[in-house]
Amino acid sequence: MDRSVISDPKSHYGSGKLATRHFITQRLTGALNILFTIFFIWLVVSLAGAERAEMLAVVGNPFVAILSALLVVNVCVHMRIGMQEVIEDYVVEPRLHSLTMLLNNLFCLAIALIGVIAIAKIAIWG
């Protein structure tokens, strides 16, 4: 970027409100990831050595299934914002920037959907 554009205080770099929302969302999802990680570690440790039927019963519990689905969604939101920051910082060509942002959003959406559908399948059909 041209130095004169950067030094001009009237230059527009993007929405300050959007950047603040991303900052707060990134920190909030990061904090929630800590709590979800504690839950996930408890779940894995409690299921260590269990039979398949017992595992399906535990994951099929609505409380565990909902928390697991929220974990997947939270991680995907956190991942999307983190990758968006990397793309904004390092991809400068406009067409490539738009493409990588689209691919980032689609990838995170696909991972979230696959994860939630897998958890729902286990919870509903065993």
Furnish the topology, listing elements before pairings.
Layout lengths: L2 H5 L8 H32 L4 H9 L1 H29 L3 H32 L1
Helix pairs in contact: 2-4, 3-5, 4-5
Subunit structure: Part of an enzyme complex containing four subunits: a flavoprotein, an iron-sulfur protein, plus two membrane-anchoring proteins, SdhC and SdhD.
Function: Membrane-anchoring subunit of succinate dehydrogenase (SDH).
Pathway: Carbohydrate metabolism; tricarboxylic acid cycle
Characterization of this structure:
Helices cover 85% and strands 0% of the residues. It has 126 residues and is mostly helical. The relative contact order is 0.11.
What are its keywords?
single chain, 126 residues, mainly alpha, 3 helical TM bundles of succinate and fumarate reductases, 5 helices, 85% helix, elongated, SuccDH_FuR_B_TM-su
Briefly note the CATH topology name: 3 helical TM bundles of succinate and fumarate reductases
Low-confidence stretches: none
Q: What is the second-level CATH architecture?
A: Up-down Bundle
How much beta, percentage-wise? under 5%
What value does the Rg take, in angstroms?
20 Å
Average of the residue pLDDT scores: 89
What coarse outline follows from CA principal-axis ratios?
elongated
Total domains, how many? 1
Q: Report the CATH C-level class.
A: Mainly Alpha
Return the structural class: mainly alpha
Order of helices and strands: HHHHH
Major beta sheet summary: none
Q: Tell me how many strands there are.
A: 0
CATH homologous superfamily? Fumarate reductase/succinate dehydrogenase, transmembrane subunit
**Helix percent band:** over 70%
**Amino-to-carboxy terminus distance:** 55 Å
How many DSSP H or I helices?
Answer: 5
